[in-house]
Automatic annotation (TrEMBL), chain A:
It holds the Pfam family TAF1_subA. It comes from the Eukaryota. GO terms for cellular component: RNA polymerase I transcription regulator complex. This is TATA box-binding protein-associated factor RNA polymerase I subunit A isoform B. It comes from Alligator mississippiensis (American alligator). GO terms for biological process: transcription by RNA polymerase I.
Length: 454, 867
């Protein structure tokens, strides 16, 4: 328990006394301790210093200097320390790749050569080196070379080392599957461009081969818990093309709802889009989005969710719709989203026009927000800014401010004033509307007041 | 008391004695075991704190732009004063310097507030047009509001019973802050409604960790706070704090953490992306998305030597420019600049290579030369741990600058400016060691970016650093163009804190302008003088202390000390001298201590003949340097052998004399050495091979060397000191007045033999050298070609001729062109021409001279290729 005492902050005039220099006490008295390990040999010390220089050069983007130091750092491979000998090849691989990636005079051939050498230097991370190399090739648009490398890496066998790098091997296979998918989709595009008649059987056969290879590998990686967005999307695309919708649905459901997987909002979105493409019932769509709403209330799909709920005839769903749209606007990222604001304004207008039947819903939602929404959304400063930047936004927000906070609200007053000054007709209607529903405002506040008193 | 007397240290340390007085009444009643345990605990605590002090986490420096982000003026918030307990609000204008980079200029004197504790953290955010500032010291936290054009107003202060560890200001709602204490409590502090305790958990979240440090930041939802301890980060709903919380980040396998990794600093990146958080650990930096918890969107190992406890983020522009993140460490002052993009439509990724910025202490090398004492003070002063980092972006015309401010624990404030360089254009940043005006190109960050996947919007902000610091009257921008800083301390050393005209004192780096402008130099000198003055009068406990030692009184009696041995007058004089030197901190020169000591008399020389025994002979021999000879002599049994040995020695001596002469003359030879000569051949032949058909086998032994000499490491290459080298060198010095003999003398077979030239080579050498015996001024026209044909075979002649012609200005000879191309396009024509002419050649360049010129050509070429 901390006791807090409020005090007025003391304030003094400044510049009262000529200040004297104050001096640090620290450096002389305290020498910062350094933890020590076993004594190092001269060789290790030299190489350590060299490594520091390399790091320094890398961090200052002096690639040439780093490369020069790197030449002498290579001797670390001959170190007698066991631990160093294990880690040195990896360090050399990482630093060397970094330098080659950035050095102005390096080219792809050099990097390929370096990578080949590195693969032989350390079998312990052979596949990692391969993966890194493949990414590099892909980034440079060398898809075919990358594919060759993937094929080579996939068939790499080195006793126990292969088993130890099982995870990397899976990734290699998955990326190979992804490239197969890429080739497949290129074929598909070609096929769609041509007429059905011109598309030969052999091409179709080829395409099917790509499909099989891709499907096998992609399916494999998706089984492991993890985040596999690109793989899942490609796999589902393949399945959909060949009409295997059950499998696709199963994959997506598993990906979204298996609790072993990390909570991935994208998985829900993929499932939703798939179901939508399939023309599934609204009920199943809503149930998917409902779960998404619970985990990520600020998701982009929430507006869509709201639109679906709004059309529902059930009160419960429409109630949920109001909740969804209110909650979306809680988030800073949606603060200036005109669409969300007009949805909320429309919904509330509807409720008011509907003889205030569901005014208690609004009251409930407002109740938990009335202490911070005014400062968060309806401040005088925001009124000025919204009016300058986006008149439509200011209009929608002013409408809500007038209803939720009454016609004395600063936001409402400012925007209305500006709107009337600019002789915009709809602000006149706005004024009339708010005036007409002043009773609703009174009811909302009254209810919330009473509820706070309760 | 007896025990105390036994403790020797008490006699010297008054502090210990004072403690003893205080505690002697009760200290002995404590059980020793318990006392030792407590002491051990305390020591462990202190040790941990020395290793890593988390109190200043977050940093005590903040920049508030007035009039929106990117404005050219703002307010710099920083602590000042000897105890860092004065909070200053200093208005600063960013004015472009001569080179277009922005520099801060202080406007007026700062608004200051005296607080009741050391300022640990200053956090500030702009909400609704006003700025809200939270200031944390150990037991007090305060909130201020700063409205444009108004004096900052203090709003509220709270006092805590356990030290506060975090205070952040809400970016969503005005006047809202979150506060954590070491007791594990999190409070939402609203200036209007007061404090609301959200939770209190003395235990850490995911696994046990001893650290009481807690942190909390705001999130995308104004009613949800993030709550961090060393083991992870959770999201905490203010409206229902007791309900289950969502895990945002967990130290462990999901995030790919290392063993022993701990959260050091979370930072909400709301300005960049509303759902992103930056989480720094000792090893890595993570970017975590609230919507996708537990799996970091980005992970990068920062490789800093100490954990980063300061971070600052500057949002990129909406056009896909990257966000800039600064990470700062405390003890080592390290400063790292990262750039990242993505978050909503594209994946989060780093752009370009991370970059290390200058630390405060880096500026030391740019300061003018100082005495070692001053250097020592400055070194300590500038090497103080950092206390805060902040930065701002500004634009002046086409140039975008980033100003990075750093605060040290002594209260000194420094800045450095980084200039943005467009990826496409070649004008790059200036490296800190370069002149700003010419801006030579180092590497552009853009180059680094090109290899990166994804949106290649590389906005590498090129950097360059110029740092300067300011004092409390901030210094302004001044004319310090330089790269680095000068420093000032905050309490105006020059002592006019009230002077509104900012005094900058910066100083220029030696490489920019050799002499700083007089005003700045004067400022700097004044500051330095104040610093040194203050240093001398530093309070006793603050001075570096010698370790506690025994008093000498315990080792010597007073009488012993009082006795002065030896010459009384001389010693007194010497002592006076020494005292004065110590007072003035000057040097004591030997002669100042009275009479110079007379040099020791040399012992009388030993006559070797007087000591005929074996041992003495041996000693004599080794003294003279011929011990091994003596030993051989001893070993040699027979008289005949001894005689032969003597003859050999005679011969050797003669040869040595000869060699001495020629090495002397060799030192006069020009840059042409034997080595380059021979390797020139190799180059020449390589050229000819490259440009025409395979060469015939050379005739002479010397030329048989040439093709095999590939560069420097040819095994058959003669060593430079060899007689052969000497003779060729000599031969190339037609005008050398130091020649021991005429060329014809050199060619006598006796001479050659003396120099150890094998018989089979003598003829070749003589042939070769005979070129020089002819007068170089008027060579018979047929001699060069005939010589050349004899020397190098047919292929060599056209080559040298074409070279000669290329020297003579005929560029159209195809051969020389091909040579030029084989040289990579570098023709050192002017050089070889001048050499040729200096060697006395007219248009008809003799062969040897053309060789010389090719030699220089080849030599240069090799030097270039060495890169």
């Amino acid at each position: 328990m901390d006791g807090f005492v409020e005090q007025p902050a003391p304030r003094e005039e400044w510049g009262s006394l000529a200040p004297s220099i104050h001096l640090p006490l620290l450096p002389c008295l305290l020498h910062h301790p350094v933890t020590r390990g076993p004594k190092e040999t001269e060789f290790q010390k030299t190489k350590e210093a060299c490594l520091n220089y390399i790091q320094d050069a890398l961090l200052q983007n002096q690639w040439q200097r780093a490369a020069e130091f790197m030449i002498s750092y290579l001797e670390i491979l001959e170190t007698s320390t066991v631990s160093k000998r294990k880690t040195a090849p990896e360090a050399i691989w990482r630093i060397g790749t970094e330098i080659l990636l950035h050095h102005s005079k390096s080219n792809i051939e050099e990097l390929n050569y370096f990578t080949e050498r590195m693969k032989n230097l350390g079998v312990k991370y052979y596949l990692k080196v391969c993966l890194e190399h493949i990414f590099y090739l892909l980034c440079n648009g060398l898809i075919d070379e990358a594919y060759q490398n993937l094929t080579l890496a996939e068939s790499w066998r080195y006793g126990e080392q292969t088993a130890a790098q099982n995870d990397e091997l899976k990734l290699i296979q998955a990326y190979k599957g992804l490239l197969d998918y890429y080739n497949w989709s290129k074929k598909r595009e070609a096929m769609l461009e041509l007429d059905e008649e011109n598309f030969t059987d052999s091409s179709e056969q080829e395409m099917h081969n790509f499909f099989r290879q891709a499907a096998v590998n992609l399916k494999e990686i998706i089984k492991i818990p993890g985040v596999w967005d690109p793989f899942v999307v490609s796999y589902v695309d393949l399945l959909e093309f060949y009409g295997d919708f059950d499998e696709a649905r199963e994959v997506l459901t598993e990906y979204a709802y298996n609790s072993k997987f990390p909570p991935n909002p994208n998985a829900h979105a993929y499932l939703y889009h798939f179901l939508k493409r399939r023309g599934e019932s609204k009920k199943s769509l809503v149930s998917v989005l409902k779960i998404l709403h619970k985990t990520v209330p600020s998701h982009e799909l929430m507006l869509e969710f709201y639109t679906m709920l709004k059309k529902s005839k059930k009160d419960k769903k429409r109630r949920l719709g109001l909740e969804v749209i209110f909650e979306v606007l809680d988030f800073a990222g949606w603060k200036e989203n005109v669409k969300a604001w007009s949805c909320l304004a429309e919904q509330i207008k509807q409720i008011l026009d509907n003889s205030n039947k569901h005014l208690d819903w609004v009251k409930e939602e407002w109740n938990s927000r009335k202490d911070w929404w005014p400062a968060f959304h309806f401040s005088h400063y925001l009124a000025k800014r919204n009016w300058q930047e986006n008149e439509k936004l200011a209009y929608e927000k002013a409408l809500l401010a007038g209803i939720l906070l009454g016609k004395d609200c600063k936001y409402y007053k400012y925007v209305l004033h500006q709107g009337c000054k600019a002789k915009k007709k709809r602000f006149q209607t706005l004024k009339k509307f708010v005036k007409k529903h002043n009773s609703a405002y009174l009811r909302i506040t009254a209810c919330s007041d009473s509820s706070t008193h309760l | 008391m007896d025990a105390r007397r036994g403790c020797r240290q008490l006699w010297v340390s008054s502090r210990l004695r004072g403690f003893c007085h205080l505690s002697q009444a009760w200290l002995w009643e404590l059980p020793l075991g318990m006392l030792g345990e407590r002491l051990h605990e305390e020591l462990a605590l202190q040790w941990d704190q020395l290793l890593f002090d988390d109190a200043p986490t977050g940093g005590a420096l903040a920049w508030l732009p007035t009039g929106g982000i990117g404005a050219s003026r703002g307010c710099l918030l920083h602590p000042a004063g000897p105890a860092m307990d004065q909070l200053c609000f200093q208005d600063v204008v960013l004015a472009p310097g001569e080179d277009g980079a922005l520099r801060p200029c202080a406007q007026g004197s700062p608004a200051q507030f005296k607080l009741s504790g050391r300022v640990r953290q200053v956090s500030a955010t702009q909400v609704d047009g006003a700025a809200f500032v939270g200031v944390r010291s150990d037991y007090h936290c305060g909130a201020w509001r700063l409205q444009p054009g108004a004096v900052p107003t203090p709003l509220q202060v709270v006092r805590t019973t356990s030290p506060a560890s975090c205070l952040t200001v809400s970016p969503h709602l005005p006047g809202e802050l979150s506060l954590c204490t070491h007791s594990g409590a999190v409070y939402l502090w609203s200036v209007e409604t007061g404090l609301q305790r959200l939770c209190q958990e003395p235990e850490t979240m995911f696994f046990r960790d001893a650290s009481p440090w807690r942190w909390s930041e705001f999130t995308a939802h104004p009613r949800v706070l993030s709550y961090a301890d060393r083991t992870g980060v959770q999201c905490l709903d203010v409206r229902a704090p007791t309900q289950a919380r969502r895990d945002l980040f967990k130290v462990g396998a999901e995030a790919g953490c290392q063993r022993g990794e701990r959260v050091v600093l979370p930072l909400y990146l709301g300005q960049a992306h509303p759902a992103q958080h930056l989480i720094a650990t000792q090893f890595s930096v993570y970017v975590v998305d609230e919507r996708f918890p537990l799996v970091p969107a980005l992970r990068w190992e920062h490789m800093m030597t100490v954990p980063p406890i300061f971070a600052h983020m500057m949002p990129g522009s909406p056009r896909g420019r990257s966000h800039k993140v600064l990470l700062g460490a405390q003890r080592t002052q390290e400063l790292m600049l990262l750039q990242c993009t993505g978050g909503s439509t594209s994946a989060c990724q780093l752009v370009g290579a991370p970059r290390r910025l200058h630390t405060i202490a880096d500026g030391l090398q740019y300061l003018p030369a100082m005495t070692p004492h001053q250097l020592d003070w400055l070194h300590q002063r500038l090497g103080m741990p950092a206390a805060g980092v902040t930065a701002t972006l500004g634009r002046c015309g086409p140039l975008e600058s980033m100003l990075v401010f750093q605060l040290s624990e002594a209260g000194d404030l420094f800045y450095q400016t980084l200039l943005h360089s467009q990826p496409a254009d070649s004008s790059p940043e200036r490296g800190h060691a370069d002149e700003p005006s010419t801006s030579p190109s180092l590497q552009t960050p853009a180059q680094a970016v090109q290899h990166l996947p994804g949106p290649g919007t590389s906005c590498g902000s090129g950097t360059e650093g110029e740092e300067e610091d300011r004092m409390e009257t901030y210094l302004s921008g001044l004319e310090v163009l330089v790269n680095e800083d000068s420093e000032d301390e905050d309490s105006g050393s020059a002592g006019q804190p009230t002077d509104p005209g900012a005094q900058g004192q910066g100083r220029t780096s030696p490489n920019q302008t050799p002499a700083p402008s007089p005003a700045i130099a004067a400022q700097y000198r004044r500051w330095l003088a104040t610093l040194s003055h203050a240093w001398k009068h530093l309070a006793e406990p603050a001075k570096p202390r010698v370790p506690l030692t025994l008093s000498q009184r315990r080792l010597f009696t007073r009488r012993e000390l009082g006795q002065v041995p030896g010459d009384r007058v001389l010693h007194q004089q010497a002592r006076r001298q020494l005292r004065r030197a110590m007072r003035e901190r000057g040097l004591v020169v030997g002669c100042a201590l009275g009479s110079e000591p007379s040099p020791l008399p040399l012992p009388c020389p030993v006559e070797p003949q007087a000591w005929p025994d074996d041992l003495s002979e041996r000693l004599t021999a080794s003294w003279v340097g011929g011990w091994s000879n003596w030993w051989e002599e001893q070993q040699g049994r027979s008289q005949a052998r001894q005689a032969r040995v003597r003859a050999l020695r005679e011969q050797r001596r003669r040869r040595k004399r000869a060699r001495g002469l020629c090495s002397l003359s060799g030192s006069f030879s020009s840059s042409l050495t034997c080595q380059s000569d021979l390797s020139d051949f190799s180059d020449v032949s390589a050229w000819s091979v490259g440009s025409r058909a395979p060469t015939p086998v050379p005739a002479s032994p010397q030329h048989s060397l040439a093709p095999s000499l590939s560069g420097q490491d040819a095994p058959a290459e003669p060593w430079p000191g060899s007689p052969l080298a000497c003779s060729t060198q000599l031969s190339q010095e037609p005008g050398g007045s130091q020649d021991p003999g005429t060329p014809s003398q050199l060619l006598s077979s006796q001479m050659l033999r003396l120099r150890g030239v094998p018989r089979e080579r003598r003829k070749t050498l003589r042939d070769y050298l005979s070129i020089f015996t002819e007068s170089p001024v008027e060579p018979p026209p047929e001699v060069p070609s005939s010589q050349a044909s004899r020397l190098g075979g047919d292929h060599r002649v056209p080559l040298s001729q074409s070279q000669a012609s290329s020297l003579g200005g005929e560029r159209h000879v195809p051969l020389s062109q091909s040579q030029a191309s084989s040289l990579g396009g570098e023709r050192h024509v002017p050089l070889s021409q001048s050499q040729a002419s200096s060697l006395g050649g007219g248009q008809h360049v003799p062969l040897s001279q053309s060789q010389a010129s090719t030699g220089s050509q080849a030599k240069r070429k090799r030097a270039r290729m060495g890169f």
